[in-house]
Amino acid sequence: MQYNTQQKRMPLPEYGRSIQNMVNHALSIEDRAERQRCANTIINIMGNMFPHLRDVPDFKHKLWDHLAIMADFKLDIDYPYEIIRKDNLGTKPENVPYPSTKIRYRHYGRTLEVLINKAIDFAEGDERQNLIALICNHMKKDYMAWNKDTVDDRKIADDLAELSQGKLQMTDAIIRLMAERIDLNYRPKMNTQNSRNNTNRKRKY
Question: Is 103 domain-assigned?
Fold first, then answer.
């Protein structure tokens, strides 16, 4: 008995030893037409192994690439697609650039700093006040998510002033708006049908 560990290493082990043996057999076929038919059959079997991927774009193309890889690019057939080149297999992808922008307080995140800058550009008025209230509530939520403790409004006010370079302040009016937004978000919604029934009862009496 010969164990798999004693056999030649497979380039794509996810297809299994049986498929690799089929590819090796195709390499040994001398007649080109027969070799082509064998390759087509192997591709169909490989496709049946992953039926959930049949609707994925370029799935068939990838199968032919995999066949070429398993054959070490030595299978002389008419490929229906331009297959991957052997020297491209070891090509490393380009480094993904990561944002290098520094964040003053990481628990607030970059998005909050963007919102603060937007609020600074807003003209004085209700829209600006509501945006500042939204920002402060968001800061409280983020602060508690990281610190797992209660947060003092004074701390949020100080951080807001620092992040906005003193251009935004958490005034008493902002604190009232913050409370109103929280109350609006957590106010229980009355069932519409129950509300209608209650109204009808009141009309009867």
Answer: no
Q: Is residue 38 part of a domain?
A: yes
* 102 in any annotated domain: no
DSSP string for 6-29: GSPPPS-GGGHHHHHHHHHHHHH-
Query: Do 81 and 114 share a structural domain?
Result: no
What is the per-residue pLDDT across 56-82, written as a single tens digit (0 to 9) for each? 889 999 999 999 999 999 999 999 999
CA distance 171 to 132: 10
Q: Which of 57, 60, 54, 61 is nearest to 82 (CA)?
A: 61
DSSP of 77-137, one letter per residue?
S--SS-PPPGGGTTPPPPPPPPP----SSTTTHHHHHHHHHHHHHSPSSHHHHHHHHHHHH
Backbone angles phi, psi at 89, to 5 degrees: -65, -35
The arithmetic mean of pLDDT across residues 192-201, rounded, is 54
* 169 within domain boundaries: yes
| Domain hosting residue 148, numbered range | 109-186
Question: What's the structural domain count of the chain?
Answer: 2
